[in-house]
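Hi L.,

You mentioned the student needs an example of a multi-chain input paired with its predicted structure. This one should do, with 723 residues in total across all chains.
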Amino acid sequence: MKHLIGSAFVIARRDFTATVFSKAFLFFLLGPLFPVMLGAIFGGIGAQVASEAERPVVAVIASPADFAQLSASRDRLAGALEDASIVGLVRFDGERDIAAQQRRLLASKSPPVLAVLTNAFSHPSLVGAVNPDGTTARQLQLVIAAARAPQHEVGPDIAVTSHGRSSGRLVQQRALTARAGQFLLFFLTILLAGMLLSQLIEEKSNKVIEVLAAAVPIDAIFLGKLFAMLATSIVGIAVWSSAGAGAIAFFSEGGLATLPPPAVGWPAFFTLGVVYFAMNYLLLGSVFLSIGAQASTVREVQTLSMPVTMGQVVIFAVATLAIGAPDSPAGLAAAIFPLSSPLVMIARAAEQPGLWPHLLAIGWQLVWVAVILRLGSRLFRRSVLQSGPTRRWWRRSRKVAAKG
Amino acid sequence: MLRQAQDRETREPAVEAVGLVKDFGDTRAVDGISLDVPAGTIYGMLGPNGAGKTTTLRLLLGIIDPSSGTRRLLGRDRPLDAARQVGYLPEERGLYPAMAAREAIAFMGALRGLPLREGRRRADQLLANHGLSEWGRKPIRTLSKGMAQTVQLLGTIIHRPRLLVLDEPFSGLDAINQAKLEEMIRAQAKDGVTIIFSTHVISHAERLCERIAIIAGGKLAFEGGVDEARDRLRPIVRLRTRSDDGPWRAAIPDNARRVGKEWVFELPPGGPEPLLKALIDGEAGIETLAIERPGLHDAFVAIAGDAAAAAMGELGQGR
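Structure written out for the whole complex:
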């Protein structure tokens, strides 16, 4: 065991230093900046496009006075909701042939007209590509009703006292933290497992793997590689967290104190985050390394890893069901299933205060990490150095089936 | 060093294999190979490409497990238990291209249990001894193929192993580097290190080895001393006479070949004296007579067969 750990350390140290002290690692650290930058750029462009694009409107055939009442009513609604979510109104003077005017307005491209409203106050009639029970018709009902009753124009005053936190707001914020935690765990794990796989393929093509296999147990290579990437990613997480905290402290008024605190508190949440990330990565990384051992080219790796990646996406989707309902049957089942357990438990840490379920879950996940590491390293050992005409597992199983 | 001297004294086998078999799917790559490599010897493994030499070496080192059969390496049943006393140069050289040469050597030592700091110190020394000091801190990818191969070779001896296994160590090296490598192998052997190397160039084995194994089609066709292999063939007689015909012709075997003006044939079982007597009594008029011991190449052809020799692709080089 001592020899195994010592050998794994030598492999891990090489991989870790080769990765962390390379120029490429700087790009890895800068990686999260790219989505943020792209989000900002495309978000800005999107907003500009949205503001510049002509939104469909309802053409209102009415006198200026009637339209002023309707428009004021519409603006009050828009103030309570969001402007973009309330249908826009444009006034037109009535013509002699209303039917012809309606047809012409519905064909108009500037502005694009969704429907035409006539006789708003006497016998409201809406013509256009709208559903009688749809949101456009219902919104117009509210607009007309409010416009008809100007005495309730402003409504009763409500004395509002601002309070930092409320349970409803806290639940919302914690759900957001849970989602963010799950997404980060999932995204980082997939990213790093992919990097691990590329590294293994590179070593197979460099023929370095044979030098390693002649000197140390294959299990040590497997563990060394896995833990080196884990250590690398923890360096990345530490840098990103510090940079994120720094950015929040610098740009956000009130600094880190404004962040919604997770149920277990920030220190425990951060510690659990690292632990669950390690568990998730070790579970998935073992699977990916075993796949890498089977493949000898990048194309083979892509083909073989696709089902696992898709499976992981499904597991992520299942894990999101536990947000807001960690004690539901689905939430508990997802917490017990080893591959989704870390994702579910990090969400639980954001939403539920107790720590003992985490101790239980970590113990359970450790058992599975040990089982999967063992299976993975055995499979890795079997396949990583097969030379000559190898029979892949699917060919072996086909042969067994044929014999049976 | 003391242990190495003891190994030599006791001549306990450094490597033992009994009935090694390795199947890859339906293909049998190694078929019942048994061999003993005495400690402190230079042992050559000869055979054409695809004969099973590399697979045999991998089996001996424990890189892959045999389908059946057993092997012992430096007295250990599990070869990897002896890994820290073994140096291995694989046929397909493997180095990290971005790693500096001295780091690569030190890393290979670390894999075999040598502390990294000591590995770096020894690496600097070895690089200096081989005139590569200025390349020590440069990445492997900037080195020539010969230099990279030397670096890998230095990595296999950095931890001062008792057993050195070199798979086709001469391939890819120019004549100067081949000579340097031969020198290095001899120096290691002088220090008591057991050396096993595979090659398809018979001349290297002939110059270096005390014992050889000839492998063809996954099977062991011969194992023993180089002299033993050569002694399997009778000495070759090359005879040039003034007379073209006469009673002396009865002394020439039926399968004798005429090469230019010379007769070439195996020395008859009676030895040189009856032959000489018959030639003199028969008035052959001997101009030249040479009795040559067969080379390892001839022995290889005789043992492994013409097909294997042709597959070596260097029929002329072995002479």
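You could point out the following to them. Chain A has two domains: 55-152, 169-390. Confidence is low (pLDDT under 50) at residues 387-394 of chain A.

Best wishes,
N.
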